[in-house]
From TrEMBL:
Pfam families: FAR1, MULE. Residues 259-351 form the MULE transposase domain. It comes from Lactuca saligna. It comes from the Eukaryota. InterPro entries: FAR1_DNA_bnd_dom, MULE_transposase_dom. This is Protein FAR1-RELATED SEQUENCE. Residues 50-142 form the FAR1 domain.
Length: 538
């Protein structure tokens, strides 16, 4: 509760004059306020601040009234009791389809109260004169223990606004934000603002920030942040598409951009713009975001624009692009990335199997066995079946065989965004998700550099690998080395025309090798596909 020491405590006193009841503000020490009548003030803000503090101590709320202007300059102002005036009782024809008014059952606080102050500016100066003060009210004043519900006490301060904005970046709504804020301060009496006030602020915030503000924000970042790329497109005076990428994203693309997953997700903003992140896999086998696009339409032209913006920002095409079976994506990739290998997501292909084949056939064990053999048979040529299992000639392609990595990352973004988010709010939420992603990457870097793994084999190559690979990838390498020692046994070697053919137990892989050049046949060099040693090549 706000206390005004020089005004003292107040109470409400009923006074009847000529049969009309009036409520007076009885202050223990009212003279310091009453003495300011006909007094000069340095500014109109000083008068307004004084009267609002007086109203808070007396027990009523204040609102502004119409200002009077002369030659475009305000020379007179009014501050009224918030119960001044009367409710609008004009009838509304709810059966008239042309009417735009909606009849709602609402309560009113207007009682025609005349309590107010008038003040005006001295001509030719910046000083203001408080020349009229009406103290009487025609309604009971607010008790001191109920003043926390008054409009004055429900005003959000900067701390509360910042808290609401911070919570919104984590996709926490106004209701839960108010509950958390109440718990932090220790009770509702210490908050002042109600849940509705939190909701109204979030609504006003969303209404204030829109497409233009997002464009201005990103343009400003492009001008002032080194190596930040941003591009946008406008059609019919409406924001049609955006793309942006920062310096960290470009560094990540330089290191991990051989394979890029290109996927779209929905319901991230109130404008129904499609969210299109470009995702790869880092050296910890974690998702890393290279760039982000927002598109108003999912057509070929929009995807072409997005890919051209990507190419403009990063300067080179990826070796392999992975996408779903959306035709517009395929056409855009073929147009903008002619040098890249484009393959479809295995998950999307296999998930459509029940739609293309009857359930009796799908559930048939013999059919499933043959179908799985067809997919995973590495001796098929690339042209036989367009799925990532046959990217043997593309380095690191085995790290991402489906767009599930992109969809996993999209799920992370969904945790921080909402379908009703404005674009700037979406941007703030996206940056929070990116901060989490990069913090996780740093934590994995620390774990790799800070600790040493325990060796499982006597091989010197294992110790060298522990210094070369990150901890996540080394676990795979270590497992392959261990299995090569306990699971793989060389049964025989046959030499034909300087080529050694080795028969390996269990896996039955024939590994032709040129005895002179000591090189494996490229057809079985799957090491490049995963960028780690495979046990049959140890």
């Amino acid at each position: 509760m706000m206390i005004i020491p020089h005004l003292g405590k107040s109470t409400s006193w009923l006074n009847t004059i000529n049969g009309i009841s009036h409520f007076l503000n009885i202050l223990i020490n009212p003279f310091k306020f009453l003495a300011i009548i006909n007094h000069n003030y340095p500014s109109d803000d000083a008068i307004e601040d004084m009267y609002r503090r007086y109203a808070c101590a007396a027990g009523f709320d204040v609102r502004k009234s119409t200002n009077k202007k002369k030659h475009g300059m305000v020379y007179m102002k009014y501050l009224l009791c918030n119960r001044e005036g009367f409710p609008n009782t004009s009838p509304v024809d709810t059966l008239d389809p042309k009417t735009s008014k909606i009849k709602r059952r609402v309560d009113t606080s207007r009682t025609g109260c005349k309590a107010r102050i008038h003040f005006k500016i001295f001509p030719g100066t910046t000083k203001w004169l408080l020349y009229e003060f009406e103290e009487k009210h025609n309604h009971p004043l607010i008790p001191r223990d109920h003043m926390l519900f008054s409009r004055h006490h429900r005003q959000l301060d900067d701390t509360q606004k910042s808290f609401i904005l911070t919570m919104s970046t984590q996709n926490i709504g106004a209701t839960i934000a108010h509950r958390l804020y109440t718990s932090i301060l220790g009770g509702y009496n210490f908050v002042g603002s109600l849940i509705d006030d939190f909701k109204n602020y979030m609504r006003d915030l969303n209404c204030f920030i829109g497409g233009k503000m997002l464009v201005d924000k990103l343009n400003n970042r492009k001008e002032n942040v080194e190596n930040f790329s941003f591009d946008y497109r406008v059609e019919n005076k409406q924001l049609n598409a955006l793309f942006w990428a920062d310096e960290t994203s470009k560094i990540n693309y330089k290191e991990f951009g051989d394979v890029v997953s290109f996927d779209a997700t929905f319901r991230t903003n109130r404008y129904h713009m499609v969210f299109v992140p470009f995702t790869g896999i880092d050296n910890h086998k974690r998702c890393v975001t290279f760039g982000v696009g927002l598109l108003s339409r999912e057509d070929t032209d929009s995807y072409i624009w997005s890919l051209k913006s990507f190419l403009k920002a990063f300067g080179k095409q990826p070796l392999l692009v992975l996408s779903d079976q959306y035709l517009a994506m395929q056409e855009a990739i073929e147009t903008v990335f002619p040098q890249s290998i484009h393959r479809l997501c295995m998950w999307h292909i296999t998930s459509k199997l029940p739609l293309k084949v009857s359930l009796n056939i799908v559930n048939n064990p013999e059919f499933r066995k043959k179908f799985n053999f067809l997919i995973w048979n590495s001796r098929l040529e690339v042209d036989d079946f367009e799925i990532p299992a046959f990217f043997k000639h593309v380095p690191l392609s085995g790290l991402m065989r489906t767009t599930s990595s992109s969809e996993s990352e999209n799920s992370t973004f969904h945790q921080n965004t909402h379908c009703g988010s404005m674009l700037v709010h979406f941007m703030i939420s996206f940056e929070a998700a990116m901060e989490k992603q990069r913090f996780t990457q740093s934590s994995f870097d620390f774990k790799t550099n800070d600790k040493h793994p325990i060796m499982r084999t006597p091989f010197e190559i294992e110790r060298n690998a522990s210094m070369f690979y990150t901890r996540t990838v080394f676990r795979q390498v270590q497992n392959e080395m261990y299995l090569s020692m306990v699971s793989c046994t060389q049964i025989s070697i046959n030499t034909f025309d300087d080529v050694d053919e080795c028969l390996v137990k269990e896996f039955i892989h024939y590994i032709p090798s040129n005895a002179n050049a000591y090189q494996l046949d490229p057809e079985v060099q799957n090491d490049d596909q995963w960028d780690i040693p495979i046990r049959h090549t140890q």
